[in-house]
Amino acid sequence: MKTKNLNSIIVLGMVATLGILIAQLLWTKQAFSLEEKKFTQKAHIALLEVVKKLYANKDIELPSNNPIEKVANDYYIVNVENDFQPDILEYYLKTEFAKMNITTDFEYAMYNCQSDEMVYGNYVSFTDRKPTSHSVYFPKHKNLVYYFAVRFPNETSYLLRSLRFWLLLTGALMIVLLVYVYSIYTIIQQKKYSELQRDFINNMTHEFKTPLSSILLASSYLNKQEAIRENKKLLDYTEIIINQSKKLNHHIEKVLNIARSDESPLALQPEKLQLLPLINEAADSIRLKNDQLTVSIEAERDFCIEADRFHFSNVIYNLIDNSVKYCEEIPKILVQVREDRWGLRLDFVDNGIGVAPKNLNLIFDKFYRVTDLKSNEVNGFGLGLFYVKKICTQHHWKISAQNNKNKGLTITIQIPKKSYA
Known about the structure:
By secondary structure, the protein is α+β, with helices and mostly antiparallel strands. It has 10 helices and 12 strands.
């Protein structure tokens, strides 16, 4: 993915997540305000009913003005203009609050005009839990004579408990935002490391190719000298230098191509290809290095596939060459070509050492090499099967690997029906 596109996605995702979180916080605040307003209304109605009951058995009319005054968020003063008993008041308060479903603790006090103090205070708990140390302060009202006051000390926590769903949702969104930020940070770090790795590989391979070209040029010139050609040992040595230099150059080219292909896909030029001649051509090429190699082909007919000639030839070559490298006896490879319900199936079956089941999913990873004795003997960078999978992916093919029942490994390429005839 291009850096510009990645940055755009990161910014949009961050803005969207922050927008949702801010909206959720605003909704939670609004919901709290609504709950607070509803609680105030219920408390007002309940206190008004208490006033009516206190006047019920007396020949006194109710005050014309609203007898209830909310002094603070959790503090109410109720004017009754009449004397009353504290035990009756507590009973009425409990009854009316229960009717209005107000189940939070409250405390009340009555004003005594003789002593000019708030007296007969009590703490009423709906959970039967008394506060361990409790000091209640009820401020007096200057213009009233007969009145009582009610305070709800736990009103805020009571309202928050009623908003549990909103608070849980807000907390979940905050966690999602934190995870998103951490994920973005990790992605950016990984991208930076990937770019550093690719730059290092590009620089390394470039620096290797310059002296290698000089070695190839000098050894080729040396190989043409008459004195060298007349001495068999010297000729063999120069041939070794040339062959090993070419092999090293091939490895460097492979590393360089893989590093380049990480940034952009390989350019493919699909064309109609006969499958069996390409397999035979790759097998003949590898037999030049190992004349004991046996490659058997089982096919119903010669299928015609649509693929890039150069890269598909490299895929076949890599698969057969890997089978030869990781074989402790005379290499025997069976290539099975057959149709199934998903399309054309190519199975490359060898008699090599196989792969531990826990490592099967890793063999197509870049730079991965199985850590065993045979792998230490084989030269390479762990790029062959990574390259094979990359080419298959770009052709929209599927590739997989599994161990044989007896010995060896089977690598399967599945070509969809639209890609062959």
